[in-house]
Amino acid sequence: MGNIIARAVTRPDIHPNLIADFHTQIDAIAEKLAANLAQFRAHAEQINLRIAKYESQVAKDNHHHQTMLEARMTLRALRKKAGRLENATKKRGIPRISGRGLPEKKFIKDKRRRRIGPGRIVRCSERASGGSRVPARRSHRF
């Protein structure tokens, strides 16, 4: 559009009113563009505010998630400890199903009991082998 005006200024055959009309049109377009730009800037500001809000929310959620994980781990540890205490108070020599709160090691504090594979914990005296430390064969455990 600037081209037309430049040519219009140099050419006397184009009427001055036409040139003035072009100028008013250009001013109107410029105003419209400026208004659009302001609107876009305001919209961008709104979006940035929303992003900031979401980011803070995500940070808060992450913190909450971390807290929940820690609480869950603590709860698991407490359950395990409770299971161990429960086992310690049981009568000795009664076989118990393994895997419920028992410590993950081969010999348990009461050395008469020993884990045989994935099955049960059995006292040595209850084995067919007559109380030796060697694990009894599966076929004659009792």
Give your account of this protein's structure:
- By secondary structure, the chain is mostly helical.
- It folds into two domains: 1-89; 92-142, no CATH class.
- Helix content is 58%, strand content 6%.
- It is built from two helices and three strands.
- The protein has helices spanning 2-10, 16-89, and strands spanning 96-97, 113-115, 120-123.
- Strands 1-3-2 form a three-stranded antiparallel β-sheet, with no helix packed on it.
- The longest helix has 74 residues, at 16-89.
- Residues 84-104 are annotated as: Disordered.
Structural class: mainly alpha
Radius of gyration: 43 Å
Number of domains: 2
Characterize the largest beta sheet: strand count, sense, and whether it forms a barrel: 3 strands, antiparallel
Number of strands: 3
Helix count? 2
The percent of residues in helical segments reads 55-70%
The geometry reads as: rod-shaped
| Strand percentage | 5-15%
Low-confidence stretches: 102-108
- Provide the spatial order of strands within the biggest beta sheet: 1-3-2
In whole angstroms, how far apart are the ends?
A: 103 Å
> H/E element string?
HHEEE
Integer average pLDDT: 70
Question: Key terms for this structure?
Answer:
142 residues, mainly alpha, 2 domains, three-stranded antiparallel β-sheet, 2 helices, 3 strands, 6% strand, rod-shaped
